[in-house]
User: What shape does this take?
Amino acid sequence: MSGPTVGFLRKRSFTIAGHGTSVALEAPFWAALERLAVSRAVSLARLIAEIDAERAGRPLASACRLAALEHVKN
Assistant: This one.
């Protein structure tokens, strides 16, 4: 995967429920989320929207990291 090395944030922009938002995560988290999206047969944007819908007030970046961690653990 191209982009900054571990420890540096990589920002990506998405449209969720008609509103633009950006998420900044480290490259390994993006890689895990991309694998999770593939395993669910959805786009990365769709996966981020699903995470957003279930985050229960948690910051979106934190919810994304937790989803990536859970995927890697399983």
In short: The CA atoms of residues 16 and 49 lie 6 Å apart.
